[in-house]
Automatic annotation (TrEMBL):
Segments of skewed composition (Polar residues): 40-52
Source organism (scientific name): Saccharothrix espanaensis (strain ATCC 51144 / DSM 44229 / JCM 9112 / NBRC 15066 / NRRL 15764)
Keyword annotations of the record: Signal
Region (Disordered): 20-62
Domain of life of the native organism: Bacteria
Repressor as UniProt keyword: no
Signal peptide interval: 1-23
Protein name per Swiss-Prot or TrEMBL: Putative secreted protein
Length: 199
């Protein structure tokens, strides 16, 4: 059985560690509430490990050829305070393209992942299924995964097609609390989906 969440968390930490940052964490506003797109709406209840991959979507979006660094516009990156150049990467062992948007102050890190080989069943059918909370982004089925701890991270995976999804995530080296990251990630996911819909 695949352990999805720890793999992605480790990859994000390794990628982020390779990106130098300057300055010190600030307690300033971390991106505002307006992203020009929809936000995720969380529902009560969590999917079980036998939950089938949802199929109801506003439209089907093929993301296999999408560059993850194009999933946030320059204006949106500015709103989230990610003022460093986008950094492309890959999830080791998977054909998943990633992009990380860092902040010079190191307060948090925003990431996007294009996954053309797995749907959100990758999360809901894993050993961490009880951590995958059902949510929705602009009518698309999604799950939110909260990972508190010394390196907190919040991820929203959005089901965009059968066997395909996109991840939006916000993580920290401990400079921002998990509550702040989970407040911000629905805005990131909403911006990502709005940009995909516009393609």
């Amino acid at each position: 059985m695949r352990r999805a969440v720890p793999i992605l968390a480790a990859v994000l930490v390794l990628t982020a560690c390779s990106q130098p940052t300057t300055g010190s964490p600030s307690g300033s506003d971390t991106g505002g509430s307006q992203t020009g797109g929809p936000q995720a709406t969380t529902t009560s209840g969590k999917p079980g490990s036998t939950t089938a991959e949802p199929a109801k979507r506003p439209k089907t979006i093929n993301v296999r050829e999408v560059d993850p660094c194009t999933l946030l516009t320059e204006a949106q990156r500015t709103q989230f305070g990610t003022d460093q150049p986008p950094q492309k990467g890959k999830v080791p062992g998977f054909d998943w393209a990633t992009c990380h948007f860092n902040r010079a102050d190191g307060e948090y890190l925003v990431g996007t992942t294009v996954i053309g080989t797995e749907g959100i069943g990758f999360y809901t059918g894993s050993a961490q299924a009880d951590q995958a909370e059902k949510t929705e982004v602009a009518g698309f089925p999604a799950v939110l995964i909260k990972e508190p701890g010394k390196l907190p991270k919040c991820t929203i995976a959005v089901d965009v097609s059968d066997g395909q999804m996109v991840d939006a995530n916000v993580s920290s080296f401990g400079n921002a609390p998990i509550e702040e990251l989970c407040r911000l990630v629905p805005q990131v996911a909403g911006a990502v989906v709005a940009n995909l819909m516009a393609k």
